[in-house]
Write a structure and sequence with these properties.
The protein is α/β, with parallel strands linked by helices. The protein has 12 helices and 10 strands. The strands form 2 sheets. A 6-stranded parallel beta sheet has the order 4-3-1-2-9-10, with helices on both faces. A 4-stranded parallel beta sheet has the order 6-5-7-8, sandwiched between helices. Strand 7, helix 10 and strand 8 form a beta-alpha-beta unit.
């Protein structure tokens, strides 16, 4: 049992966005070891086919299971929406993902039952959020919008300038008119655009951050499975499929100096 509690939590994403989940994990669970894999060679996933996303997700799951992780977090909304079953079938450890937690919070917190969802084209086309929310509240009205340019903006480090403001306005104009009171940030990159999104939509719209909500579920899962590490200093390891130097540079926008190095894995 001791050996397994000392095993790392595996977190994976199509690129860098999953570091918002890592940041929330570090804050909430400082003792835990974390192994992160970002598929930086093949990002973005949101415009790829279902078959391709499943193939990539399988490869990454196998890589992390070989690292003897005790829990897997699918920190990519696109993979969670499209490949969750594939990942779960391959995994010998519990698998958590970013969609259910956000859907629960949104369904609970909305006052008008009008919920917006923004994400990559693959996430939005999958209808995963709408399905998850409707299981909780059949009367909820879902307004979805794909925002494909948000990921490259964040990875470029552009989170608060005129280009971002114009892009937010172009994508969220219709949502603003729809009367939503809750907006799910359905991609782990999007929390870095919170300031611009909040400024445009106004304080009356609650933003649901999938990273924060997922980590609350992680705490519950670790306790339930008796896997929580209760002491020591967490060790954090980062693996990427391309451009580790760029990952470190952009990763520091998410985590500060905690991203010291990243190992490139040839795929």
């Amino acid at each position: 049992m001791d050996k397994k509690t000392n095993s790392a939590i595996g977190v994976f994403d199509s690129g860098i966005g999953g570091l918002t989940v890592v940041r929330a994990l570090m804050e909430r669970l400082p003792f835990e070891n974390i192994i992160y894999f970002g598929d930086t060679a093949r990002v973005p996933y949101g415009i790829k086919s279902v078959e391709t996303i499943n193939h990539y997700a399988s490869q990454i799951t196998e890589f992390l299971i070989k690292k003897d992780v005790k829990l897997l977090i699918v920190a990519c909304n696109t993979m969670a929406a499209v490949a969750y079953q594939t990942i779960k079938d391959l995994s010998s450890v519990p698998v958590l993902e970013v969609i259910d937690a956000s859907a629960r919070i949104a369904a609970k917190d909305t006052r008008t039952k009008s919920i917006g969802v923004i994400g990559t084209p693959a996430t939005i086309n999958s209808n995963a959020y709408a399905r998850a929310i409707h299981l909780l509240d059949a009367e909820a009205k879902i307004f979805s919008q794909a925002c494909p340019l948000f990921v490259p903006l964040v990875e470029e480090g552009w989170t608060d300038n005129k280009v971002v403001e114009m892009t937010v306005k172009a994508y969220l104009g219709s949502l603003k008119q729809s009367g939503i009171d809750t907006l799910i940030l359905g991609c782990t990159h999007y929390p870095l655009l919170k300031k611009a999104i909040r400024k445009y939509l106004g304080s009356g719209v609650r933003l649901v951050d999938s990273a924060e909500e997922t980590v609350k579920e992680v705490v519950v899962a670790l306790k339930k499975n008796r896997l929580a590490k209760k002491s020591g200093k967490g060790i954090h390891s980062f693996f990427v499929s391309d451009a580790p130097d760029r990952f470190i540079k952009v990763g520091r926008r998410f985590l500060g100096e905690k991203v010291e190095s990243a190992v490139r894995i040839e795929r």
